[in-house]
Amino acid sequence: MTPEAFNGPPLLSMRGIAKSFPGVRALRDVDLDLHGGEVLALVGENGAGKSTLIKVLAGAHLPDAGSIHLHGHAVRLTSPLEARKAGIAVIYQEFNLAPSLTAIENIFLGREPACAGFVRRSEERRRAAELFTQLGVAVGLDVPCRELTVAQQQLVEIARALALEAHIVVMDEPTATLTPQEVERLFGIIRDLRTRGIGILYVSHRLEEVFAIADRVLVLRDGEAVACRSIGATTREELIRLMVGRRLEEEFPKRQVPIGPPRLVVRGLRCGRKVRGVSFTIRRGEVVGLTGLVGAGRTETARLIFGADRKEAGTIELDGRSLAICSPRDAIRAGIALLTEDRKAQGLVLGQSVRDNFALPNLERFSFLGFVRCRAERQALARHVERLRIRLASPEQAIRHLSGGNQQKVVLAKWLERHCEVLLFDEPTRGIDVGAKVEIYRLINDLAAAGKAILLISSELPEVLGMSDRILVMHEGRLTGEITDVSRATQEDILRLAVG
Predict the structure, then answer these.
(1) Could you give the domains of the chain?
(2) What is d(CA 90, CA 50) in angstroms, rounded to the nearest whole number?
(3) What is the pLDDT of residues 311-350, one digit of tens each?
(4) What's the rounded Cα separation, in Å, for the pair 142 and 390?
(5) Whole-prediction pTM value?
(6) Which residues of the chain have pLDDT under 50?
(7) Interior/surface letters 26-58, b for 16+ CB within 10 angstroms, e for the rest
(8) Distance of CA 433 to the CA centre of its chain
């Protein structure tokens, strides 16, 4: 459907939305219109206000000012329950599913069809099967959601939205952990939802997806709506300029540095069927990309090197010295750092402050005779805040209140303070806007220039091609190929190796 077809009254209208938190003005007079049968992309840097705007629409935050109209009628969404009753379904990047419950139970949780106080299980099963038939997919109805793949869990969330008879579906970074094939399947489902008159608010940092699926795009910057464009009337370069407020000369600013002798040497690494005899070398100043389809064993390889999982076989050497790594503590003391794939679950303590998270792996550096030298701790953090341009109200701010990009920068800061010699970056730019990505790429350049050995694990093939000196490709736990002439390589070259 072309944007010209959206001339009638909008399904959703948000006017003058404002929201502030202590020390931060998150939204300033934001307007948004969403029509039935439209996919409206919402883009912006981390901290631009996207998550806050979604939470206002979801009833999780009450706006300080502004109004919301659905079907032309003013509504006050005071809770997520009120939003769901109004026909608004939000599918967050971190799914809101009960892991121990089945797909059926999650779809109807809190709304179970009942008769005389008894849940009508057969009715639930029939309706759930119909929903997945509508979506054109097969999902095990009686399988606990924790045993489903990420893509299947996402389908359960979409089925739940359909069961709610939602008129508006918000998708927050829906493709962050999906394979290219799963992304295409999701796009097919979105197009089907669009034909039913459902309005889709699509939040993503991946601009290629915005151009593939959206009808219009709304750009937020520093809490304000700076532009709304028909997707056919804009370009990738213009969107980037609108998002960051300046022109980015280079999306992947790879800098060539002298490559030295081997630093990290991995031989015969093995753990069950997840990692099967993996061997590779990373040299001084080298960025080695490691890629493959989801489930290929990339993250598992990094966790074995870092001691987060116990290896069955294999050796690890650093600068010619054999390492006995049985735990993350051993790896950290040896000079190896892991930037985890899931920063919220594995890289941060969300209930603690920015300062506490920064200090955790560095306490011995900031302690004397059992006492923490708080002044030294604060000074060190301040240096990294300035260097990495971390946006925060105060060092004592709870880290859960930072945007995803700023959370990632805090994780980077704590490892930079350790002065580790080997850095394992697992999906370092997942869920991060294009401006913050460039900052992280430049940091990778600086680390390589300082002689560090860097393993860059990523599902984004342009990122791997743009930032690597060499590329290793995995399939089903094994290395299936190595690309040494990266400048001549293509995404198709990588995918041929990735499928085995």
Answers:
(1) 3-244 (3.40.50.300), 249-335+420-500 (3.40.50.300), 352-415 (no CATH)
(2) 13
(3) 999 999 999 999 999 999 999 999 999 998 877 777 888 8
(4) 44
(5) 0.68
(6) 1-4
(7) bbbebebbbbbbbbbbbbbbbbbbbbbbbbbbb
(8) 10
